[in-house]
Amino acid sequence: MSGVQYLLKWIMRLFERFAWYLEPVDHEPDTYVVKSLSPRMPVVKQNRITFVDSLGIGTPLPDPRHLALHASVARTFAHSGVGRYYVQMALAKARRIIDETSSEEEPEREEESGQNVARKKNGRKRRG
Hints:
Number of strands: 3
Radius of gyration: 22 Å
């Protein structure tokens, strides 16, 4: 998985957990401002998003009603105090995913070094 794919997956997971939401911009169709439940959690550098069918093939854009419902739930979480718990849980999960992703190669190296140790104990050398 590339870094960009991983970042998009992480951002979408945080969206699904109501850690951030989109608020519509008045008089600008399909344009939203990113709102976060935590000022320490930068979701995107530029906080304005406009959805477009860039290929011109009729790709459906997100339904504004669904985004409004999502925003409403996220704001309710934030105002009730549940949002803080939910964001902490989402960030903890994201950190675990980052740790797992960054250490995917490490077990192979450990396993390989463990095999080398076992071979040395048995007096055998590894042949390439």
